[in-house]
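User: My instructor asked us to take a sequence, write out its structure as tokens, and then describe one feature of it. I'm not sure where to start. Here is the sequence I was given:
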Amino acid sequence: MKTSRTLNFSCLLLLAMALLQACSSSPAKPSAQASAAPTAAQAPAATAPQAAPAATGTVIPTDVFKNSKPAPAMVPTSALPPIEGRAVALAPMVLLYLSPSTKAYQDSGKAGFTTYPSIWQTFLRKYRIPFQNIASVEQLEASTPGVLLLPSLVALSQREKQAIQKFRASGGSVLSTWLTGVRDESGGWQGFGFMQNVLNVEVVGDTEPTEEISTLMPYGDSPITYSLLAGQRLWMERVKGMYPLRLSGRAASAQIMDWGRTSVMGKSGAIITFDEQRQSTGVLSRSVTLGYTERLWLSTEPKVLEAIAYQAMTWLLRQSAVHVAAWPFPYTAALSVLVSASDVLDSADLKFADVVEKAGMRASYYVLSNNLKKSMDALKKLQAKGHEIGYMGDQFGGFRGLPEATQSKRLTAALQEMKEAGVSPGPDYGFHAPMEAQDKTTELLLNQLGFSHQIGFLETSDIRVPMLIPRAAGAANPAKPMVILPRTISSPEDLMAEEPEEGFKQFLAEFELSKAMGSLALVRFPNQSVLTEVEVGNIFKRFKESSADVWIATNGEVARWWRERDRISAEIDTSSAVLRLSVTVSGTERLSSNAAVMVNLPYAQDTLRLIPDGDNRNTVKIQRIDPWRALVSLDKLPPGKYRWMMQFERSAGKAN
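Assistant: Let's start with the prediction itself. The structure tokens for your sequence are:
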């Protein structure tokens, strides 16, 4: 039996929804040019206190991680078992705990770190989130369930730990940062047991020995980082004694990686985890761990860290939130296959295409115009089978650094030679540079010539999803922005060249992380591949196994979708006592893709119901994709504004 209720937002929730729009817009528009780690002079101006003097000690003893094992593979949230428990209404209040044990340890001079509670106080005031400072264990023990904020409380007494555990047992949510309770009130080392047993997060290492691991990469569409784009690079300063942690938990919202995103086997790990678990009392309690200290707010882009903190806070307060999903319903990630045809296309390529087709896929082939005559037979057969044709240029040679006139001549020649050969790539033709050698001049020329999309590389984009580039003045196809498709996953051919078995493991690890992040996995193969039939077969077998939750498309289809997605907006209307989902589809044409809206659920396993409101009579399909999120299918809606009343149903066993 199920009970139904319509959520009513308090004044806090009204303020929070307005805040969400401000928070989500600023960090979600990275530039087309990828960023390097900023120098000290380039770091964002800090509004928080100045950094403390150099530390004299360290919180984590030497060699604690000496024999640590790689972070265990995390189960996709879609595969998690149901999370059952009783729901408890939370007070709309954040309790900022200022632990006397941590203060004493810090004041002793042995700690080697400084806490920054004023950073949280400034943040909470800025966004008008009610909060209360708690400075004693007695106050902590008497607290009512809300959100308990533990800002890098490295030292806790046994009584403090028990009070935090009691707070969770009463249904309260907990937001912790960096290390919590790893030392006692006298500074003695206690290990990570409290974090694992009470906060549901395992510390598997930190980034001290791996200098290159210094970039936070958020997951797209996550309940904690949904306003950020998948894989958006965020450089994190390396402060001695306060290095970011490598974590493992039931669910992750961000990874700590190298700039190139290749360190996935043993070196990287989650840096933000979240969970919701049934306590011994039978009630549900949520937790979020940010694996970095407040000190990094002084040097890292503050708007992004504020967006993460805000979204973590609203999730812990059990507020629903909505946003346009990155991929068509019902998918949570995307996959496309790119073939760099620098050689003549022949029977070997047709054989490769057979493997692609057996996996239910079609590939995007980028060809050189000076190979067209010798490739025509294979090219026509590939097009007849539904594979996509794009441009690689006129000849095998990079574009980077060439004069604009030379680049323009080569691109124009490729277009003309393709036309004269009778090959029609279609309206969504794209470009992939030979040897991936292109520059800003190439991008501008492609824009002016009306190319639908171009393949971007590590230095082109800071994100792992497509990016829209407005058309230049006087460009062809002015109404259709050009789309950059970032190639952020290693080519299996490159990885498996010397050590096939290890290379295959590395590729699968990168692919699985791309899926978990909600990214576009754009996988490159050269034509005339040297991989064996068995190796190619194993790769595409894994692709096929992922087709239930990964959208498999050609590059042209991905570009079309990303332009169409830009026409959609979604928000929760809180102007009345009843929550309403409001969706706007702009433009003049009906959606051609099955677009979707992602909804964060207030409690694990909630069932979302949408009731058409006003003149809207469109019913929608809803699919819960994991314990905390549901996808709403917009089912190719025509332009217009649509509203639905929102209800969240919970099983009787979870009633208040």
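For the description part of your assignment, you could build on this observation: The first strand starts at residue 2 and ends at 5. Try explaining in your own words what that tells you about the chain.
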